[in-house]
Amino acid sequence: MKGARPALRYAKAILNLAKTSGNDGVVNENMKLIASTIAESSDLDAMLKSPIIKTADKRKVLTALFGDKVDNVVKGLFNLLEENKRMMMLEPIAKQYSVIYDYYKSMQVAKVTTAVALNKDLEEKVHAKIVELTGNSATIENVVNPDILGGFILRVGDVQYDASISNQFKELRREFDNSHYIPKI
Q1: CB of 47 within 8 A of CB of 19?
Q2: For 164-181, what is each residue's pLDDT tens digit?
Q3: How much is the pLDDT for 117?
Q4: I need a labelling partner for 88 at 20 to 30 A (CA). Which of 23, 55, 114, 183 fits?
């Protein structure tokens, strides 16, 4: 991916700066806001990537859009990206920041696939299962897929736990296919 290494360098520098100021958690929330806003707005994304629009104008738009919502560290990032003419890297930097922040805080993202959306009680049970399986806490990302019929599929890092009804049906079918039962004809 083009620009991934510089985005990671910027994100590391921003994390170090945020840690020294004690605002690393606030900056993480700001970065999530920025990444989601850019991802949701194709116009904003196109404006940031446009070579025609001046970087000063891009910074003005970002300042107007996020002005009071973001920390001074993030505002400094806007200025730095303007100086280096790298405004198009804002979204990858924001995403990389969240990734390295989660690693720094030993937080993982757990992807939970369910047939219906998780309620608060189920989310707590899934969180307990995550701690049991990995020994670490994780933020939960819920993906709704009605094809699994019921139960859930949990993926944290390289660990996958499949407690879905569709998987149990597959295992049952495999068991019947491999059995040595010969029916009477």
Answers
A1: no
A2: 888 888 888 888 777 766
A3: 86
A4: 23
Q: What are the pLDDT digits (tens) for 31-87?
A: 999 989 998 989 989 998 999 999 899 989 988 988 888 888 888 889 898 899 888
On whether the CB atoms of residues 144 and 115 are closer than 8 A, the answer is yes
* Residue 146 DSSP SS3: helix
What the chain holds in terms of domains, given with CATH numbers, is 4-104 (1.10.520.20), 108-178 (no CATH)
Instruction: Name 141's bridge partners.
Output: 111
Q: How far is CA 6 from CA 9, 12, 99, in A?
A: 5, 10, 15
- pLDDT value at residue 175: 82
State the CB neighbour count (10 A cutoff) for residue 12: 15
> Can you tell me the distance from the alpha carbon of 113 to that of 148, in angstroms, rounded to the nearest whole number?
8
β 108-114/152-156 pair status: antiparallel
Contact (CB, 8 A) for 161 and 133:
yes
Whether pTM > 0.85 for this model: the answer is no
Candidates 159, 147, 113, 104; CA nearest to 126 is 113
